[in-house]
Amino acid sequence: MKIFVAGATGVIGCLLLPKLVKAGHEVVGMTRDSGRTELIRGLGAQEHVLDIFDRQAVFSAIKDIRPDVVIHQLTSLSDRNFQDNARIRIEGTRNLVDAAKAAGVKRMIAQSIAWAYESGDQPAREEDSLDLDAPLPRKISIDGIVALEQAVAEVADHVILRYGMFYGPGTWYDIQGEMAKQVQNHQLPATDGVMSFLHVKDAAHAALLALNWPSGPVNIVDDEPAAGIDWLPIYAKALQAPAPEYQEGRQGWERGASNTKARTVYGWEPQYPTWRTELRQM
Length: 282
Hints:
Layout: E1 2-6, H1 11-22, E2 26-31, H2 37-42, E3 46-49, H3 55-65, E4 69-72, H4 82-102, E5 107-113, H5 138-152, E6 157-163, E7 165-167, H6 178-184, E8 194-195, E9 197-199, H7 200-209, E10 216-220, E11 226-227, H8 228-238, H9 260-265, H10 275-280
Helix pairs in contact: 1-7, 3-4, 4-5
């Protein structure tokens, strides 16, 4: 198949491209930075420089490339700019979906998040509602996710990968990442809030497998949702940082997510089933 990967030079894209190439697909990797084209070629794909907000250029690119599948891994999170990231999810996704539909693309795979669900006491499942009434500033992210998922669902065959919180090389939780800095500076309290993690290698592998999955959303998270009081002290110790202070309570949406559907229905198995091993080895 010919596959167009939007966000080809991001953390997931760089892991995904060689997997797709190895599987025998013809891959076109998109970046808005002309200085990263060599990286894409080095990963075995063709490069295409494109600004996702240039609607006419997006339509022209998809029409010319004529991919069988579009994989949407675009984000803007390296500097934690949630407004820019929401714009990508809303405006960028709209352009990509409309261009794909106009070009007759029948399948799209897109990156979403597993912590966008409404409040609850158990790990969220795919049939649970998203947090549509979220207050600011959380509402910024939720509105972006809702717009993304609704747009992608317009494509005949679509898979929405609701990823857990990424950790691993190049993420916020890497040794030089933003979360590591906060922990080292003793700025992050350990709370009762629950989160589901996901190693970036598992995220990329799920995107590859999703080429053959049924339409709909699916949580891609590890096996062990974790409260801050459990994972943060382990992470801090690995970083040789001060032990975090305990702050009682959690937000209702801090519930983690279940990967039962991915495991039992789709047969997905994470290479990193728990965050414990890797976070201990920072």
